[in-house]
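Database export, one record per block. Field names are fixed; values are copied verbatim from the stored entry.
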Amino acid sequence: MPPDTVTISTVIPLYNGAPYIEECLDSVLKQTLLPNEIIVVNDGSTDDGPAIVERLSLNRPITLLHKTNAGQSSARNHGIAHSTGRLIALLDQDDAWYPNHLAELSKPFRRPRYPEIGWVYSNLDEVDESGKMVSRDCLHRAANVVHPKRDLMHCLKTDMFILPSATVMSRAAFEKVGGFDEQLVGFEDDDLFLRMFRAGYDNIYLDKALTRWRIFGGSSSFSTRMSVSRMVYVRKLLAEYPNDTHRGNNYTQDLIVPRFFPWLVREYNIALRSGQPAAIEAALADMRFLMPMHRPRIRLVLRLLMSILELPAFARLLAPMVNVARPALRRLLR
């Protein structure tokens, strides 16, 4: 992609993001390399976030689009469909960029490269709800996660940790794989970048923080919709990655199920502590679905665990012991 054809569209989904959207947009407008367009997609907000964007757009190059609420995947697809840039720079409403974000992440696209680059992404700093620093270069904390992405096994074994707000991607690659899966309101980023990887696009990782990632209790990462979406994604992976007998890879038993089962134990514990019977039963149902797919030697341990979890009152008494045992369980499942 020659330098004179590198145009960048920034796309920001907005849903009840009034407390953060001005800071988010301010970080875009302070880029040392400004995007060619800034598109905010109001995904059915009920707060005054859209009004804030409208005020800012009076004297700034910001386009505000409106749609009924359908989740961030739908909002991102909608914004990208109405954009024109050769590169797409996504930003979530509660995150912010450092001033050199676009300049750094767009550099690799400015010279011919084969195979073609699908996306470039970076490390990031984690901040709390008030914007105060929690962790510098926080991707270093993610154990067993490999950057950049180089083989399918690692992409399936752990979460990808490619944050949309820390990514610039090729429009051509995005469109080639069909954009975000709108069934997913969680793990939609893992799903998209895995499909780009499988389509043969290359990726580049910059081990420097270019983004401030705000994570807190109200984030979508901790929502019920995320839990539901996770299992939609699990079923999608199970369907799309049957075992590769030619290479001797058992994707189900060795990678997918061990990756996601500990999440279900965690969700069960959260539901147990907060007294949510429906959430307890949902976690149990998902565990029952995945348990038979585990390696045979592990199923015995899981049957014992399930016999305890199936009795919430008993499980509540043993909760301290279960919590202590969780790290060992995670190691066993891996």
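Remark 1: The two ends are 41 Å apart (CA to CA).
Remark 2: The chain has a mean pLDDT of 91.
End of record.
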